[in-house]
Design a protein that fits this description.
Layout: H1 7-10, H2 18-21, H3 27-40, H4 53-60, H5 64-76, E1 80-83, E2 87-90, E3 100-103, H6 106-114, E4 117-127, E5 138-139, E6 143-152, E7 155-165, H7 166-171, H8 173-178, H9 181-187, E8 195-204, H10 207-213, E9 220-229, E10 234-244, E11 248-251
Parallel strand pairs: 3-11, 5-10
Antiparallel strand pairs: 1-2, 4-6, 6-7, 7-10, 8-9, 9-10
Helix pairs in contact: 3-5, 4-5
């Protein structure tokens, strides 16, 4: 049997891998990202031996040569090291992971958002409010809807569906379109952001999200829903963000009561 298998031949594999293969980028790069994410998450610790290449190929439903290419890429990045006749091991010292931190402190969040650059994908004016619970607050008259990709240092890290009070949007449309919405809202002296409700769930990237964030299909993502209310109890902002699991992490310090 000819061992020179290509990505094209990989595409004839199991139907369960269709989503992975439809993702953005070369197949071996996607496999490398999945393995890297597992190492970063602590599934395999520094110095630990990875499963055999045959096992990894079977797990991901790809050809052996694709896994070899993925491991070679990880070795070039200093993530793993190969020992002749012994296997592939997680490097003893991993490259430092650069994280975007989502902190619970308001000023810290504003600082992080301030360095972000949005790219506008979709817009709509005078749309009805998204679903709001009684605890969220009362809806505004109507909302400006935007779908955007947020970037930091040129790297896409989140896809966000945004609803901002239409009347507030009309006061600074250019700024709302080109800057982070919450940062713009925070500048209005007559608007007091009295509360922020956040809800985090863990999921995986669908095809559209994977393409926008340049990650493999089914890569881990965090889904954050934020609701901002003003001093009158009106919901002036709803943001539903999908964050890359390999770039963004949530940090919160819990103080023990005296």
């Amino acid at each position: 049997m000819d061992s020179r298998v290509t990505d094209t031949q990989d595409r004839q594999g199991s139907p369960g891998q269709d989503a992975l293969r439809s993702g953005r980028g070369k197949l071996y790069e996607q496999i490398a990202t999945l393995i890297r994410n597992e190492i970063v998450s602590g599934r395999w610790v520094p110095g630990e031996r990875l499963p055999s290449l045959d096992t990894l190929a079977e797990r991901h439903g790809v050809a052996l040569v694709t896994v070899r290419q993925a491991v070679a890429l990880l070795e070039d990045d200093g993530i793993v090291r190969r020992r002749q006749g012994k296997g592939t091991f997680v490097s003893d010292t991993l490259p430092e992971q650069k994280w975007l931190k989502l902190e619970s402190n308001w000023q810290s969040m504003l600082k992080m958002w301030g360095r972000s650059k949005p790219r506008l994908l979709k817009v709509a004016d005078d749309v009805a409010s998204p679903f709001l619970s009684e605890e969220d607050g009362k809806p505004a008259r109507s909302y400006r809807y935007m779908r955007r990709v947020h970037m930091a240092d040129g790297v896409p890290y989140a896809v966000v569906d945004i609803y901002v009070d239409q009347d507030l949007y009309a006061r600074a449309p250019n700024k709302f379109d080109s800057e982070m919405v919450v940062v713009v809202l925070d500048r209005f002296e007559d608007v007091s952001l009295t509360s922020v409700r956040q809800r985090l769930t863990i999921g995986s990237a669908d095809l559209e999200t994977a393409e926008l964030l340049n990650i493999p299909v089914n890569a881990p993502v965090g889904k954050m829903r934020r609701v901002l209310k003003d001093q009158h109890g009106t919901v002036i902002y709803v943001g539903e963000a999908i964050y890359r699991g390999d770039l963004v992490r949530l940090e919160r310090e819990i103080q023990r009561p005296d």
